[in-house]
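User: I'm curious whether this sequence folds into something compact or stays loose and floppy. Could you predict its structure so I can see for myself?
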Amino acid sequence: MKARIIGMVFLMTVIIAFTAGCKSTSTSARAWAWVYADGAVYKHGGVATIEVTRVGTGQYCIQTNPNILEYLSPIIATVQGVDLYAAFINANTCWSGVCDNYGGHGVFTADISGKPQDMSFTVVIP
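Assistant: Here's the prediction. I'll summarize afterward.
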């Protein structure tokens, strides 16, 4: 559990470095976005715009304009919340699922018990 928390803190630090202040759209990431729990994109930047479609509770399909995503394209995502907020997040970049009609890339959020739950998150496409 301690290793998981340390890993989550490290990932959050990386995301914060990409989105520090959310004031500039210049970034080394190809695309990044801060997404509300309802799927609305609050802030974004990079060479492509991330578009999000919420398809179910805790289920968000990710597309970019222009399209920079390919099969197995890496997606880095983290849940946003108060300090030490415990939750799960998963990125699917290749397996069949609910996002097939949107290009196949998705981000999925759940509460600490594993039950799907809508949550705000940040997503980065390096």
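Summary: Residues 2-125 form one domain. The chain has a mean pLDDT of 83.
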